[in-house]
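U., I forgot to send this yesterday:
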Amino acid sequence: MERIRKGDQVVVTAGNNKGKRGIVQSRVDADYVLVDGINLAKKHTKPNPVKGVVGGILNKTMPIHVSNVALYNPETKKSDRVGFKLLENGKKVRIFKSSGKVVGG
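Result:
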């Protein structure tokens, strides 16, 4: 079970985007995530009329390592670490380490 998932709101903890918040678009692999509006790079594209691509300079979201992002806690309005807990019914859930409350619930 991953600590950071698609749709989570995260805060960047390291790098040139430190302190910015965004929503995880997808997981690239086990170690990298794509965060909306974070770690943008300029991509120069040539026009291709066959594919319908207009040329120019586009902003492309690049992957960021999961160690450089932390889950955003809306109660404290800060980043928070994630832990796991087994409920009485046997279900495994993610919790915030600071408060012990269930993530997203």
